[in-house]
Amino acid sequence: MADDEIDELLERLAREAMPPTARISYGEAPSQFGDLRLPTDGSAGPWPVAIMVHGGYWRVRYDGSSYGAIAGALTTFGIATWNIEYRRLGEPGGGWPGTFEDVADAADSLRGLAERYPLDLSRVVTLGHSAGGHLALWLAARPRLPMNSPLWRPDSLPISGVVSLAGVANLRRAWELRLSDTVVEKLLDGAPKQVPARYDDCSPFELLPLCVPQAMLHGTIDDIVPFEISAGYVERARSLGDNARLLPLEGCGHFEVIDPSTAAWRDVAQATRALIGS
User: Fold this and answer.
1) How many angstroms separate the CA atoms of 83 and 64, rounded?
2) CA–CA separation, 256 vs 222, rounded Å?
3) What is the pTM of this model?
């Protein structure tokens, strides 16, 4: 898909997004906010929550506005959604370590939101696409971080499960494949041999087992994040005892999973509902 086609798709999805219940800041930087959407199906809370993490290879060119479409679609199943924005490459504080600190802060801020809105924090899943799939997995992996890591926190919000959509689950492999002009090296400010501890702390593949259920949905003809990334990740996760499922989307590329009008999205919604118990 050409860049102009990608932009057109994302702009359409942004136009189709349901307005959020509230936009709430979790920090002082312009990109430190999230859009909270509460269920529209008539159900009463407290509601389970899906933390939505958008992709775009961690670059500032792409934001979370287009993910409002799938965030809104999930609310029809009685799921609250927290569509988070975060600092990205190309803006102050983006990359290492700010991008990771932001998604951690955004996730942990749900504790404060639960004091104002009826949210069930015992049922929180993360759902992310592409680079957001990487960050969704990483949020679940935080308890695996060593205490000497700059990203370690003593009381990270527990995650019940992860839905990764064409996620960049293995940063070392993504660097080897030079994905998106070796963007992983820009994200972590160094190659694996230069900053190995950062790859260890930031790559879900290295932090396995996550010890939570994981659903990895990936188009078999994805030319932006190769299918092999999810396949290799699931193989290792299962070998280490994780409940990880690979759901190949035959004939799908990279973006069908974030478009509520596609059959692929129905698979995403089903996987999310199964993990969250909705």
Assistant:
1) 7
2) 10
3) 0.97
DSSP notation for 155-199: TPPP--EEEEES----HHHHHHTTHHHHHHHHHHTS-TTTSHHHH
DSSP-H helix ranges across 47-195: 68-75, 98-108, 110-113, 131-141, 171-176, 179-188
Condensed to tens digits (0 to 9), the pLDDT of residues 120-156 reads 999 999 999 999 999 999 999 999 999 999 999 999 9
Q: Per-residue confidence at 278, pLDDT binned at 50, 70, 90?
A: low
Q: In what order do the strands lie in the sheet with 244-249?
A: 22-25, 33-37, 80-84, 47-53, 119-129, 161-165, 214-219, 244-249
**Could you give the CA distance from residue 219 to residue 247 in angstroms, rounded to a whole number?**
9
Residue 267: name the closest of 163, 134, 125 by CA. 163
* Helix, strand or coil, per DSSP, at residue 237: helix
Give the tens place of pLDDT for each residue, 75-86.
999 999 999 999
